[in-house]
Amino acid sequence: MAVLLVNLAAASAQTPTAQTPTPGRQTPSGVKPSAAVATRSYPPALVESGRALFRRDCSFCHGRDAGGGESGLDLTRSKLVTADVGGDKIGAVIRDGRPGTKMPSFNYSDQQIAGLMAFIHTQQNNALRNKGGRKGVDVSDLQTGNAEAGKQYFDGAGGCSACHSPTGDLAGVASRYEGLKLEEQMLYPDHAKSRVTVTPASGQTITGTLDYLDVFTVGLIDSTGVYRSWRTSDVQYKVDAPVNAHMEQFSKYTDADIHNLMAYLQTLR
Fold this sequence. Notes:
Blueprint: H1 2-12, H2 35-38, H3 44-57, H4 59-62, H5 79-83, H6 90-96, H7 110-129, H8 147-155, H9 173-176, H10 180-187, E1 195-199, E2 206-213, E3 217-221, E4 227-231, E5 236-240, H11 242-249, H12 255-265
Antiparallel strand pairs: 1-2, 1-5, 2-3, 3-4
């Protein structure tokens, strides 16, 4: 596929040219780029075709200029984009999607993928030239705390160890999440783990995983995997959400506490 996409790009107007990269220049992800990846140029018509397709189908998640959007990554700072050669990695993600994530698959032609590749690489090149204008957060930005102080806070004043264990639920957490995703998990735990107990007029309680809740309806998945719901006016219910305890910490955290906790969590691999 890589050869095909490069040929398509060349056939559109002119052969992409590689320039010598500025010595010492690095990508936002900290990976030193090669001349083939960081400075390639593409025919303007191909870039524009990719821009139009990207803004139609991809901008809702990744932003109009591939710099990150409602729920998608900043592609100008993507390690996959940096490592992509001739669409070999970008094309695979577009065609196959990312199972288990919000990234769907697209049935695009080779020409369309070539345009998207050209546009995304061009946007990454532009981002590299605009120093100081990055919108994302690097992993290194969140590595400024003191891990030992974070461990002391975890075991002591923070009270974290009352619910969490570095060898239990948090074992390997830094291998599952990194950077901002890890901090988000620390500050706003997964709502999907919330439990709810519902007590109807009969007095027999039903406990399960909270699946739906608004002013009118409360719904849960019970222990057999069955969805059950009630009108909130007909029952009493209590939600036990992990996020609640974390939200109560917001007024107690200092900036140092958060940085130190992050440093400690990053050691749990």
